[in-house]
Amino acid sequence: MNKLEGKVAVITGGNSGIGLATAQRFVAEGAYVYITGRRQSELDAAVRQIGKNVTAVQGDVSNLADLDRLYATVQQQHGHIDIVFANAGVGEFVPLGKISEAHFDKIFDINVKGLLFTVQKALPLLRDGSSIILTASSTANKGTEAFSVYSASNAAIRSFARSWILDLKARKIRVNAVSPGPTNTPGSDDLVTTEEERKQFKASAAASVPLGRMGEPDEIAKAVVFLASDDSSFITGIELAIDGGQAQI
Ligand code: NAD
C-alpha cells in the first residue's frame, strides 16, 4: 500500500478493462487519477467504481484538442503530473486482402498517433523523474492472423519506449511498455460479435498461452503499479510481458 502516495496520474482508456483496473490500483496506492475515455456514461460508471481521488475527462486520444482539454484540467487542478499510463487502444480482426484505408487509419490514429500525443502533450506538466507507461501487446512480438494492423501498431509503441528514453534522458523520465497477452476485458469481448464466437475466441486465446488461460485486468494493473512506482526506479525502456508466456513460444 501507499506505493504511489501523493502522485498525480493520467490514464487514457481509464474507464474500462486494463485502464480501469489500473486506476483502481493507483488510487488504492495513494495516487490521484485523471481518467479519459470516449464514452461519458462509462466514465461516470468508472468514477463511481473508483470512488475517490478521480476526475474523468471525456475525450478521444486521436483528437489533439481533446488532449489539450484533458491536460488543461490537470494543470488547473494539480499543476503537474507524476505518471502517464498511455493505455487507450483498439483492435479489429481484418485479414490482409480486406484491409481498408479506414481500418488502417483508425487503428494507427488511436493506437500510435493518440499514444504519441498523449505523451508529448503531457511533457510540460510531467515532473523530472516521472514514469511513463505505454500499453503495447504480446501481438507485437509474434505472427497474428487477421490482426496485422493492430500488431504492427503495437510494435510501433514498443519502439517509442526505446527511443523516448533517449529523448527524455536529461529529465530522468522513465518510459516502459507493458505487453499484455489475451486479457478478459470488454475490449477483447468486442473483437467478436456472437456468444458462440466469443466462446471459441476465449478458448483459443487460452490455448495459445502456456499458462492455459486468459489474463485478468488486475494482473496487468499490478505490473503497471510496479513500473509507476519507485520499486522500478532503475528500470527504463523495457517491455514487460504479462502474457502467461504467450509471446515466448
Ligand atoms: P477496453 O476496450 O476494455 O478498454 C479500452 C479503453 O480505451 C476504453 O476505456 C476506451 O474508452 C478507450 N479508448 C479506445 N479508443 C479511444 C480513443 N480514441 N480515445 C480515448 N479512449 C479510447 O480494452 P482493454 O483490453 O482494457 O485495452 C486496453 C489496452 O490494452 C489497449 O491499448 C489494448 O490494445 C491493449 N491490450 C489489450 C489486450 C486484451 O486482450 N484485452 C491485450 C494486449 C493489449
UniProtKB/TrEMBL annotation:
Signal peptide (residue range): none
GO molecular function term, any single one: oxidoreductase activity
Domain Ketoreductase: 7-181
Pfam families, sorted: adh_short_C2
The keyword Oxidoreductase belongs to this UniProt entry's keyword annotation: yes
Keywords from the named record: Oxidoreductase
Highest taxon, organism lineage: Bacteria
Family membership noted in the UniProt record: Belongs to the short-chain dehydrogenases/reductases (SDR) family.
Protein name: Putative oxidoreductase YkvO
Provenance organism: Dictyobacter kobayashii
Gene: ykvO
